[in-house]
Amino acid sequence: MRRNTTLALVVAATTSLALTACGGGGFDEGAKPQQSSGPAKLQILIGTSGDAETAAVKAAADTWAKKTGNTAEVVVASDLNQQLGQGFAGGTPPDIFYADAGRIGDFAKAGNLYAYGDQVKDAGYLDSLVQTYTYDGKLQCAPKDFSTLALVINTEMWTKAGLTDADIPKDWAGLETVAKKLTSGKVTGLVVSGEWARLGVFMRQAGGWVVSPDGKTVTADSPENVAGLTEAQKLLKAGSMKYAKQVDAGWGGEALGKGKAAMTIEGNWIRGALKNDFPDIKAKVVELPAGPAGKGTLLFSNCWGIAAKSKNQAAAVDLVKSLTSVDQQMEFAKAFGVMPSTKEGSTQYAAAFPDDAAFSAGGAYGTGPVNVPGFDPVMAAFNTDLEQLASKDPKTILSSLQKNGDAALKGQ
Predict the structure, then answer these.
(1) Which pTM value belongs to this model?
(2) Can you tell me the distance from the alpha carbon of 235 to that of 154, in angstroms, rounded to the nearest whole number?
(3) CATH homologous superfamily for the domain 5-146+301-367
(4) What tens digit of pLDDT does each residue of 133-171 get?
């Protein structure tokens, strides 16, 4: 499973309008649904990476149900956003559901979420995830797990180029050096997807980002963001970094697997992809090099959303507490590779999976997607501009992002 942000944004942008439209008439934020008495019958809607994830979630739900006397039905969505939209619009949403970090603002603004964060805030979630799921000053839901971006290296190519662990890049200058040395013939030193969900790491490492931490101000055209995109452009112009499509690959993992890239910037889902599709490729994962402002990466996550219309909210919160316990999250990690959302869980994960410790470390300083309502089209337009980064002025790209972002904020 890989995070295809471009596709996700297109789907989310379409769904966002429908969900927001439901917020005014379909949901009265002042009215709390009458809660069911007796044993609860919960419906859980999930998007899944495969049979392993589905089986693990069902097993965890069954264990909780047997312990509490309740019922928990896990439903695998064929199209999670579409089915959630239909459930919200019809007033019959699932009690619990996977909610993407980038959609929290839309869901909350439309009145679709039961903001239960204050009931689970003592679980010790990573600070970066708490910020990601906080909207309008409230922690809306419990982070389910997370993924981060790191530098993934083809160790055979690395060794053949005469590089050792001492050459692992710690800063941008080091990245430029190894990317150039690894670029030869049909092999490009660094191959990434040409989208904000990869190139945004340079912005963060320079100390910038699209919006302020509180999400109330667009900060796109800052000098820090210009510096970040300028560094990415420098690598592109040098030919030591290319976009995946330039080497006839769908994403960085495929480029690495096909031997067209010596390095890529990807998330921990790449482990499963390489194992399944390119089992002969040996890869090493290290933290991304720091920029002028220090370390920076992006994180992607889902939370356990609870519907504002659910009549089983108390039972739903109790189930979420069980699903996000350290022991249960480690079971999920072993079953299908996700990283626990709590500080203690993250520490245990790094110890249990030392080869992926770099991914886990990113949880301490990673930045989640913009969760401002109505921002999906803005980020989709940003992606379109980033496709031309090699030849387009970063200031012009960021000026457009600033303009579009300001318009989205004013339209709330």
Answers:
(1) 0.86
(2) 19
(3) Periplasmic binding protein-like II (3.40.190.10)
(4) 999 999 999 999 999 999 999 999 999 999 999 999 999
